[in-house]
Structures are given as structure tokens and as C-alpha cells.
Write a structure and sequence with these properties.
Blueprint (H helix, E strand, L loop, with lengths): L5 H12 L5 H11 L5 E6 L7 H22 L13 E2 L6 E5 L1 E2 L12 E4 L1 H7 L5 E2 L5 E2 L8 E7 L10 H7 L4 E9 L16 E8 L3 E2 L11 E3 L2 H10 L6 E4 L6 H9 L5 E6 L2 H14 L4 E5 L15 E7 L17 H21 E10 L9 H10 L26 H4 L9 E3 L8 E3 L5
Parallel strand pairs: 5-8, 13-14, 13-16, 14-15, 16-17
Antiparallel strand pairs: 1-3, 1-12, 2-3, 4-11, 5-7, 6-10, 8-9, 9-10, 18-19
Length: 448
């Protein structure tokens, strides 16, 4: 089954045909989007962790313990996982990363006789190191018992009924199910769906992913000192180049990873305003800021497309980050996205409204960083072209030393080749060792 419905796929093909992106490159992009990231990255909270070398050791110990635990659980098998080695980026020293670990002596992960059905969002979380919580288990085979191994499938149609028989659903809907991996059910099947049963906590512990890897859950990692975050997200705060004493605005801030990163980069010596239009997200952001010691951050419920300029004075912010709401087609692994062309188009005007407000709030000489986690030309290069044409006083600047993506902007009407080279598109990732394994730079190619 395709990553998108037919209408959306045709829309994307037509969009990319406007660029110098070949059909072969487009197909390779889709294939890459369907794969889980090869590397996991963790950001160190520099406000609370003084010795970064100690952080590297902390993560190494965390991985050692995690893989010892999973290897004990599979000790009866003629295979085990190797403990991955951690490394620290020299360019972004708060970034620690490690490669996904595959089993020794096992070529292919086999599907089992008992099944669990989950939704697409839950499946994507598993590929980022999550186990499955009780509410995420939509359906289990009728004969599933505590400690049984079950094969986990994502329901691409989204039609599976909670508490139904997963085996029966599997037989009738094989073509609309994607194999995610295998895991241990921690309860008898009926316990998942009893009203009196506790509805939180882990329901299925992951044993192995469909690609043969295992990613440990970060839940046992120190939640104050470390934050799982993709490299391009870390780059946003670095490229913004915030300075102590500055007035900074994060216009679309939830869940708060970039906001707290900015606070760390200025050592809380400044003032950061963070917006999101959803109250529950702002509450979680406030909790994250307390947890991370981000005392310079003020969180407000505010739709960034509807700014009251009597409250927020024009030309008042030194730095503005717009990590814009988008179609999120660059988040990996992309299992299935049911977005339609009309929904894709709806993001375009909404982004423009936010960007217009961002420009009005930015001081002369200030920096505006615009980022998305999607692949469409309309939400990326074409927005930059529109912005530069509408506001002639704006100009693109070199992002060095953080201009590290091997791929620049795609060909777009209104942008010169020189301007395109000042944009970054992150595509299939490659690590280049320049010195020793603990001292190298990173060359990247799209969203990890």
C-alpha cells in the first residue's frame, strides 16, 4: 500500500515536477521516508549538565543497561543485540547520537501466530523507541495471554474496532495492515478491555522491529538532563543564533523542544516568549520548562496567525522562530498519511499569515528562522519566494557553520540558484568521519 492515497500522490508528483527533481529521485524519496531513521539523537540540557563528557558516559550506561535487559529476555534464542556506541557531534556538542542495533545471527524477523493491532501514530512512536501503552492496543487475538509474543500491525485504514479479535481482522484486511514488529503482551487479552482495568502503563513491550532493530525506550533516561530530538530540530535553535539579553519569540512552540534549547543556548539570560493556540499543549510546555530549568521562557495560549499588536509591539523581537504547522510529510518513518490535496493546500495560507506576523514583530537587523517537517514545495521554497517578494527588505543569509545539509533548496520560481543554496533540505542521512570516531562532522541529506 502506498504512503498516500492516489489523489495526494498525484498532487505531490505534480508539485515535484516543477523542480529539477527526477521521477527516480521522487520514488527514492518516498522509499526513504518509509524507513525508520538509522540514527537516534539526544540533546543534552546544557543548563543542568556541566560536564558534557559525563553526559556521553551517562548515555553509554543507559544503552548498556537497556541492551543487557533485552538480551536477557531473548537469551534462549541464538541471537543478541550489540550495544551501539555513542558519539558526540563536535559542531553541536549538545548532540549525542548512536546507530540502531540489529540482532546477530538473525536475517529476517518472522511474523507470529498471535496479533495486536495499533494505529499509525502509535506505530510511528514505536520506531522512535516507545513501547505500547494499554490504550494504544486497539485489538488483540482472542487467545493472547500474558507474556505471549505477538506480532504488531498498524491499521492503515483506521477501521479496526477496539476490543475486537485481531486475528479475524488480520485475515480480512491483510492488504491494509503494515507489520511493525514483535513484542510481549504484559496482560491477558481480556484485561486490556475491562472497564475496571488500569488504563495507563505499558501493555506490550517491544522485542524487535520489522527491520530487525531494537530502539530502547527513553522513559528510563534522566528526563531533566536529556531530550530525544532530531538533528534538524536542534539546528533550528543553533541557526537562530540567540544571544544572552535578547527578546526572542517562538511562534509555534509546542511541544517545547526548540524553546527549551534556545533557553539553554542563552543560559536563561534573556526573555523568550512561546506561543501555541492549544491550552493543553501550553500546559505541557510549562511543565517541560520547569523540568528543564528553562526559567527565561514565558508560555502563552496564542494563535500565531492572529496577533494583537497592542499586546505584542511591532519590531520588538531580536529573534523569531517559525517552526510552522505543516503537513508533516517529512516525519519518519512515514507509514501512511491520509491527508488529501485540499488539506495540503490549507497549510499554505495559514503559514503565510504566521510569517506576515513574524516579519511585523521582528526588529530591523533581527533574524527570522522558518522551518517545517514536510517535503512539499508549496510549504517550503515557494513560501520563501513569496516572503522575499512581499518584503523586499528581507534577505537570505548564510547559515554557516550550520549549513550542513548536502541538499539545498529545490528549483523554484522566484528564487535564484544563489538563494537556493542558502536553504537547507535534509534528505537521506550520511555520516562522514573526519578524524576519530569521537571527533567528526556530520553531512546530512533530509528530515531524520
Amino acid at each position: 500500500m502506498s504512503l498516500f492515497n492516489e489523489e495526494t500522490l498525484m498532487y505531490l508528483k505534480k508539485s515535484f515536477s516543477k523542480t529539477d527533481f527526477s521521477e527516480d529521485s521522487f520514488n527514492k524519496l518516498l522509499e526513504w521516508l518509509s524507513e525508520s531513521p538509522k540514527w537516534s539523537t539526544i540533546r543534552v540540557n546544557k543548563n543542568l549538565v556541566g560536564d558534557l563528557s559525563k553526559s556521553l558516559k551517562d548515555i553509554e550506561n543507559f544503552l548498556q543497561g537497556s541492551f543487557e535487559s533485552i538480551n536477557k529476555l531473548i537469551s534462549a534464542e541464538n541471537s543478541r543485540y550489540l550495544v551501539p556506541r555513542c558519539n558526540q557531534l563536535t559542531l553541536i556538542d549538545e548532540c549525542i547520537f548512536y546507530e540502531s542495533s540489529k540482532k546477530i545471527n538473525e536475517d529476517k524477523i518472522r511474523m507470529l501466530e498471535k496479533f495486536a493491532i495499533i494505529d499509525v501514530k502509535c506505530a510511528q512512536a514505536i520506531f522512535r523507541g516507545a513501547d505500547i501503552f494499554i490504550p494504544g492496543v486497539i485489538s488483540l487475538s482472542l487467545n493472547a495471554k500474558a507474556n505471549d509474543l505477538v506480532s504488531i500491525f498498524a491499521d492503515l485504514k483506521g477501521k479496526c474496532l477496539r476490543g475486537s479479535d485481531a486475528s479475524e481482522y488480520f485475515l480480512k484486511n491483510k492488504e491494509y495492515l503494515k507489520f511493525i514488529g514483535n513484542g510481549w503482551s504484559l496482560f491477558d487479552r481480556d484485561d486490556f478491555y475491562k472497564k475496571e482495568h488500569i488504563k495507563n502503563g505499558i501493555g506490550i513491550k517491544i522485542k524487535e522491529l520489522s527491520n530487525g532493530t531494537y530502539i530502547p525506550s527513553f522513559i528510563n533516561l534522566n528526563q531533566k538532563n536529556y531530550y530525544p530530538q532530531n538533528l534538524p530540530s536542534m539546528l533550528c535553535a543553533r541557526i537562530l543564533d540567540p544571544k544572552p539579553g535578547q527578546f526572542i519569540l517562538d511562534m509555534c512552540a509546542a511541544p517545547g523542544g526548540k524553546t527549551t534549547h534556545i533557553a539553554e543556548l542563552i543560559s536563561n539570560k534573556g526573555r523568550i516568549i512561546a506561543f501555541d493556540k492549544i491550552p493543553s499543549k501550553i500546559q505541557k510546555m510549562k511543565e517541560l520548562c520547569v523540568q528543564f530549568g528553562a526559567t527565561s521562557v514565558e508560555c502563552y495560549v496564542q494563535d500565531a496567525s492572529k496577533i494583537d499588536f497592542n499586546v505584542y509591539e511591532p519590531e520588538s523581537f531580536d529573534r523569531v522562530l517559525v517552526d510552522s504547522p505543516c503537513s508533516a510529510l517529512g516525519q519518519r518513518p512515514l507509514i501512511f498519511n491520509k491527508v488529501d490535496p485540499n488539506q495540503l493546500k490549507s497549510y499554505i495560507n495559514y503559514q503565510k499569515m504566521i510569517l506576515e506576523n513574524a516579519v511585523k514583530l521582528l526588529k530591523p537587523g533581527g533574524y527570522l528562522v522558518f522551518s517545517t517537517c514536510t517535503i512539499t514545495l508549496e510549504e517550503n521554497e515557494e513560501q520563501v519566494s513569496w516572503l522575499l517578494n512581499r518584503y523586499k527588505f528581507l534577505k537570505l543569509i548564510d547559515q554557516s557553520p550550520y549549513q550542513i545539509a548536502e541538499s539545498s533548496g529545490l528549483k523554484c520560481r522566484g528564487l535564484t540558484n544563489t538563494q537556493l543554496k542558502l536553504l537547507q533540505r535534509f534528505q537521506p542521512m550520511v555520516f562522514l568521519y573526519l578524524n576519530s570516531p569521537k571527533n567528526f562532522e556530520l553531512i546530512v541529506k533530509n528530515p531524520a
